[in-house]
Amino acid sequence: MSFVAPLGLLLLALVAGPLVAHLLRRRRPEERDFPAARLVPTAPPLARRRANLEDRSLLALRVLAIAALAFVAASPLVRCTRVSLDRRGGASVALAIVLDDSMSMNAELPAEVRRAGARTRFELAVVAAREIESSLRSGDAVTIVIASAPAHVVLAPTQERGAIRATLEAIARDGASHRGTDLDGALALASSALSKLPQPDRRVVLLSDLSDGKDAPLALGDPALRLEFPLDALTRAPPQGQADCGLLAASPEGTGEAVRVRLVCATPDVVGPSRNVDIVAFGTDTKAGSLALPLQIPKGPFEVVVPVDRKLLPSLDPQAGHPGAIARLSGKPDALVADDETPILGSATMPVIGIVVGEGGALDQVVATGGAPVLERALEAVEQGKVSARPLPSAPERDLDLAPLSGLSLDDLAGLGPEARTALAHWVERGGVLLLSLGARSVAPALGASFEPFLTRPLHTQAIDPKIGVDPALAGPFGDGAEPPVSLEAKVRVTLSADDLRAGEVRAKFSDGAPLLVVRKHGQGEVWLLTLPLSPDASDLPLRPAFLAFVGAFADRAADRGAGVRLTVGSAFSVGPDDGLEVAPLDPKGNPLPPLPLEPAAVRVRPQRLGAYLVTVSPKGASPFRDVRAVVPVEAEVDLRPRPLAPATAAGQTSGMQRTTQELSPTLAALVCLLAAIELLIRVRRLFSPPPEPAAET
């Protein structure tokens, strides 16, 4: 509410008038002689009882009347920011409410746009959704879509207001999540839900801050629908002086004398130097290291190395089922508190894929590509800085060497030694993604070498027609955005035993039906078995566009699994269909909270909030193991800049909604008349009432 004429409130000073009048009406107390007092000696009076105010009820009525007149003078109108529907000729409306509950909606609102107790963007969006629900009429149909990734429908189109109200209450009770934003997917779901409804007036109401990290204008694809954006307050910048910096990852550096922290700041010009990165022992406030952010903060993700006092923090490794330490932002107020803390686990850099080429094959690939392995060149072309390739001289044999890797490619190796097999099995069980490209050297492993436990039976080679290509009906990742090659110009391929084929899933086949790509689950990780080597001399597969699609799918899977250490919020921890999985969030003291529910019909858990989690995996036929994992924010959610709306939407963003303006003067005038009538009734009653009888003397 806002006053049109604030000077009218000066009339409140007239409240002193009735008070002074009632004070002047005070009379001296009536004196009466007490007969027995004549026998008592006269003494000088010590105090005199003051007279009380008379007619206090009349005084209160007069004060209220003057206050009401003051408000009439100050505010003849009340402007309410209540959101409601307008209607075309009174017809019913088909409405899709798209409600954003992503992490950016947790940002605090500026004081000037808060209302109805809403302090965050999400709370204000819920208030607007409730106001829209209260303006519905009989015949209106409503569906509710959640815009956080993955976007989903929480209420199918219905005319039951009770169901609509209950759904909004459940959304408000759950609060905003920490997931990313999928506005395009949410609008597509809303359009699909409204397309078959009979109402001619169909609209999509978007309640979002439009912060999804994209620059393309947002618009509906269906011209028959209208996109309404009634709350521009959701796109307001945070309160002055607040910026958003988010921690993306943190890991030990070297032997543990420092911590490498990867972070991003949305508005570097607002952050300033008064922001620190602290290293704190998990579950305590013991600060083992601190570093101020640089004066010139770059745009996009960057890394800092924070020195650590090992006396205050002896170990940075996960211990006793919880992380040994956390990285935390401190200092200047932050617009989003949720992303100011992250456990110290694994690698803090971008996902890394190790590349090992078998002896002899490396020389072939150097000649064919001009210096780098085929897979490394393909990763540079496809991922463009999102994944880092790291050539390795041999298969890693220690957990320490495998810890920084999200994925690993072993191309045509002559088997694996005992140390490498043990380390790789443990790494894949924890979530690593292993690509085994099998060639002629893989069929004849060295003495004491094998591919167990990933392959349990011997391999064989098979001569094939060079004109054989990839089956278009089952091309798998080779057909994702690319045309499967008709001819691979391969003369020999590797065949797997029936037992190894039954243990995995055939994702791609040759055109003659033989397996080309087999994916096998192993713990929380995966093993991709490719029956052709990656050398250009063995086939034309590395030279075809389909190979880039395959490399992109492998890199995405490796980045998603992240060796099981770190998972982006909204993604899922998953294991094989016969394995057990339990994911329990850890509280600030390191105690496990109740486990998260499994998704229906799948052994998969999808955390909705950031933090540290205790993951327990129970592989079939093996002993369960526990590990600590981290759920980290989506980088785009740290950027609070709103996405632009399409010109047609921006021009008519309030065309289907209205903010009501109500007159206050009639209500206040009626109140003044009512108070005057009450005062008149009291006076009339006293006029005709007999005077009170005096008290009898004794």
CATH superfamily of the domain at 83-237 and 642-661: von Willebrand factor, type A domain
**How much is the average pLDDT?**
79
Q: What would you say the CATH architecture of the domain at 83-237 and 642-661 is?
A: 3-Layer(aba) Sandwich
Strand arrangement in the largest pleated sheet = 15-14-16-17-22-21-20
Main sheet properties: 7 strands, mixed
**Number of continuous helical runs:** 16
Number of strands: 29
Percent in strands: 15-25%
**How helix-rich are the residues, as a percent range?**
10-25%
According to CATH, the fold-level topology of the domain at 83-237 and 642-661 is Rossmann fold
Describe the global form: elongated
Low-confidence regions: 46-53, 366-370, 650-655
Structural Rg = 37 Å
Class from helix and strand fractions: alpha/beta
